[in-house]
Design a protein that fits this description.
The protein has about 1000 residues and is mostly beta strands. It has seven helices and 60 strands. The longest helix is centred in the first third of the chain and has 21 residues.
Amino acid sequence: MIKFIKAFCFICLLSAVSIAFSQEFKREKYNFNADWKLKTGDLKGAEKNNFNDNKWERITLPHAYNQNEAFKKDIENLTTGIVWYRKNFKLPQGISNKKVFLEFEGIRHAGEIYINGAKIGLHENGVMAFGLDISNYVKPFPFQNVVALRIDNDWKYREQSSNATYQWNDKNFNANYGGIPKNVFLHITDKLYQTLPLYSNLETTGTYIYASQINIANKSAVINAESQLKNEFSVSKTVTYQVELFDLDNKKIAEFSGNKTTIAPGETKTVKASQVINDLHFWSWGYGYLYTAKTILIVDGKEVDAVATKTGFRKTEFNNGEIVLNDRVIQMKGYAQRTSNEWPALGMSVPAWMSDFSNQLMVESNANLVRWMHVTPWKQDVESCDRVGLMQAMPAGDAEKDAKGNQWIQRVNLMRDAIIYNRNNPSIVFYECGNESISEVHMQEMKNLKDTYDPHGGRAIGSREMLDSNVAEYGGEMLYINKSARKPMWATEYSRDEGMRKYWDEYSPPFHKEGDGPLYRDKDASDYNHNQDRHAIEDVIRWNDYFVERPGTGKRVNSGGVNIIFSDSNTHHRGESNYRTSGEVDPMRIPKDGFFAHQVMWDGWVDIEKQRTHILGHWNYSDATIKNEYVVSSGEKVELFVNGKSKGFGKRSNTFLFTFENIPFEAGTLKAVSYDAQGKNLSEDKKITAGTPFAIKLTPHTNPNGFGADGSDVALVDVEVVDKNGQRCPTNNAMIHFTLTGNATWLGGIAQGPDNYILSKDLPVENGVNRIMIQSTPQSGAISISAQSNDLQLATITFNTRAVSVENGLSKQLPGKDLPSNLQRGPTPETASYSIKRTPVFISHATALANNDDAYKSYDDNELTEWTNDGKVSTGRIVYTLSAPSQINQCVVKFTGWRTKSYPIRILADGKEVFKGNTSQSLGYITLDLIPILAKEITIELTGINTEKDGFDKIVEVDPTKELDLYKDKMAAEAKGQLRIVEIEFYKKQDEE
């Protein structure tokens, strides 16, 4: 009997082994964020498996060890030093003799990585993702493996091999959330596999999916797939490379294969396949249509490896001074956003749905581009922009200048890694090589990287400035307006004003006087202590500079710009708070009035396509209040009504701003109606006086797939003070006390006060509203939040978190995997995005009384050249001969010293005066209206001496000594008889034959 039992057990064991080995192995990607521990300080032996970490803090990644200081402390005071992270994990059962990789989306700043006590890697750039092959260091189930990281986020960290610091480890703009603030993944593959797009450490490039021969009208393109393979078997393998394409509904729409390939032992090889696909949906602005390309390796008829790449297809062009998306010209309208994209008490380490929440708000403000500043965004934000339909400008890493030596090598390596990692993301349209001009040699080196690793991605590579570069594929200064008839020029940041959401105007609690606040570098800082109304008005004034030079206004055009910044940031600041308040939303993403102003001005690809009107502020004042009312509208004229009675039409300025002076407050309804030139009603907006504060209202925002009990998911809750009708009370600033029960951690919100109320359960609303956050724990269950305040009806809200499966430190629930795409704006329209506003008249040649050989430089489409006389009024004369006689009605000109210098000039058309006056200071170009006279020659001449005064002296650079325009002549301010022209253009009416 005993022999029989032993035999039976042996047969069962053989059977189990046979079943286990008959199951086909499938490549897996695991969420590796769960069950980490951290401890600050440099601890001896913390890399060893037997190290006692029982008293360490338990966390779920992503989690920066100092993230709860976000917005509590100034960027310069964020905690730095050494921190250790540890995690125990087991490989899945049955995994042996396979490849195992770790993928870190990034650490800050530098880390030494250990597996089971052995040091396996070092990563130091503090920005980009990197990979580690841990196959030979991990042991199979049921062994408890240990991964440990020693991370140093010192501001002055030096690269170990070169002793060089990193340019982008900078206290101005790169908030230092230290440790592991991004996601981590574990990959298990067979020994014949498609590599990961992780060049650092692994030196592999992964899979590349792109479209070619794109036909927008026919909705077709050739879809190409390329995968880098590695064979780590001891024998050759013959592989069939197969591609399956799935649409947004996960329906398979195509299947195609490449040629069979034999790959030798130890060999790395790239395989390819392509096919024409019809009925495509092209990715577009506000239309985040994505496909999944599944690339499969088949050996002897069996699938041995498969990689799913989510991507999108779109067509781009960069020429004639314009940017073209899917055959339609688009002017850049968006934000220069700090790459940290941070939130209070969480820093950058937010769940993927919150990245969508924030980035989609940019799209809702009608932005089409986000320019991440200085360093590459983390993959979560990159993928988020894919989903929401927001174009991106992706930097590598820099500061405010070019680099040399080891620091330049660091920048090149970072750009290489970033291109490889992000080249399948359709939202990336620009690669940025620097926040300042770089040398032509360096520009060529960066372009070579793009041409090597992303030759088919439809992206332009360039840098801030690079105005006369023959290599850069786009350019554009900071603050100023550039134009071009060749490569597109767009402003990499503009409108540096700041203003806190708390301050409506001087007539609303807390009655902040416009501009009041501390000095900045011992100078007036009123532009950084704005009220909301003034901040929004400045947004209008600054954008109008770009709007008037948009495509359709001539041969040389401007391709837009990005407003700095979208959300208030825990970075370099100039106003009264300890963080930057330039945002169009506050740190919790509650809109300021500037958000709605941009909605009005930006609702179109180039020209306005949807009419909007927005009244700045609110309509809740004391009975004696008389104030100016401001309306932002895309109409030709705007009429204001108070309780149905007209207050007349507003004074229009800067295209979009309408001012109504001295309007007495009268409780009820304030309404603005906009009209076209013929009096047709286009759009309207209204504000209604709220009643007495009555109750607190709570409104939740959670993950579309449910509030996950994983220790990292977050719920947002809007907190409003409302009247009996449920209308927000916009001048209420009541203190609210919160109570939290259940399996959640309190994160709170932000407001002006002690430590900015970070993590406090007592938080005031500002202008009647605020927002708080709670974070889940790894235990699911019910959560309740109550909010109460004196004399207000309290409110309570409840949540139930869903369980998240984690086994031995691994989860198959990947961050962001099932989040929906935003398709709200629909596919790219087939109509033209602009109409022609005026017709350029071209210059045949020019003659001047001084420096005649340089006269052509005043119209050579190069903003780094100029024509100037010799400093005498008598020689301040230049004559332009037109290509054909024309009735010129406008002269558009960029004078050197555009911020500071006013030129007294007159303009003659065939000897007849058509303009006389002093030119205004500007941030670039000015337009002079001329009396239209048929003429062949246009003469510009000085009528007196120049005057000097900076018209924008409150707009400052980070570097106060930086040259603000082309004043390279140190004696220019003393030369009172100069006439200096950077670029000049002439236009006639569009209807002139």
